[in-house]
């Protein structure tokens, strides 16, 4: 019996935070969602002003799955997937790593993977993310961000 690979479909969408200005209050359902929205807005503004990045969002429909995967921010210019979290706590960073690995495999070629956090995680988590080929990005000022590599 031959195995037919399952198909998936990527659809570009306008990121839900795209109409927000840095610092603008969102109507996100929780403080964590608002913090993530703020990080995404600030980072998108940073990469647009730094090198003219074109950004988008994606919805990914996976064959056989009952739901869609959402990509809030994708840097088309550098072909980088951005997964944002509101905390650098261990379980939160591990969740972001899992999401980045899961979602990234649906792109061809596979994108660079970034985890956007409000502050750097513990050194052992930095090491783990680097071993998994994931870059950490954190704010380093009101309008600046630092990449871990």
Explained architecture:
It is a single chain. The chain contains 3 helices and 7 strands; from the N terminus they run E-H-E-E-E-H-E-H-E-E. The protein is α/β, with parallel strands linked by helices and 149 residues long. It has a 7-stranded mixed β-sheet with strand order 1-2-3-4-5-6-7. A hairpin with a 4-residue loop joins strand 3 and strand 4.
Q: Which range does the strand content fall in? A: 25-35%
Biggest sheet layout? 7 strands, mixed
Distance between the termini: 45 Å
Fraction of residues in helix: 25-40%
Number of strands: 7
Order of helices and strands: EHEEEHEHEE
What integer is the average pLDDT?
A: 88
* Number of discrete helical segments: 3
Estimated structural class = alpha/beta
What is the radius of gyration computed over CA atoms, rounded to a whole number of angstroms?
16 Å
Strand sequence of the main sheet, in spatial order? 1-2-3-4-5-6-7
* pLDDT < 50 stretches: none
Shape descriptor reads: globular
Produce a short descriptive summary.
By secondary structure, the chain is of the alpha/beta class. 30% of the residues lie in helices and 30% in strands.
Question: Secondary-structure map with pairings?
Answer:
Elements: E1 8-13, H1 31-51, E2 55-62, E3 68-75, E4 80-84, H2 90-104, E5 112-116, H3 123-131, E6 134-141, E7 144-147
Q: What tags apply to this protein structure?
A:
alpha/beta
């Amino acid at each position: 019996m031959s195995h037919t690979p399952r198909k998936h479909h990527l659809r570009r969408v306008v990121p839900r935070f795209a109409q927000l200005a840095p610092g603008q209050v969102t109507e996100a359902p929780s403080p964590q969602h608002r913090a993530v929205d703020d990080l995404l807005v600030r980072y998108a503004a940073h990469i647009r002003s730094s090198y003219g990045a074109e950004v988008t969002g994606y919805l990914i429909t996976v064959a056989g799955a009952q739901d869609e995967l959402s990509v809030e921010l994708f840097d088309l210019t550098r072909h980088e997937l951005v997964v944002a979290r509101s905390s650098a706590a261990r379980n939160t960073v591990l969740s972001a790593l899992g999401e980045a690995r899961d979602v990234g495999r649906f792109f061809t070629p596979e994108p660079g993977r970034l985890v956007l956090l409000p502050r750097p995680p513990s050194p052992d988590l930095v090491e783990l993310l680097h071993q998994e080929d994931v870059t950490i990005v954190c704010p380093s000022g009101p309008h600046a961000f630092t990449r871990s590599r």
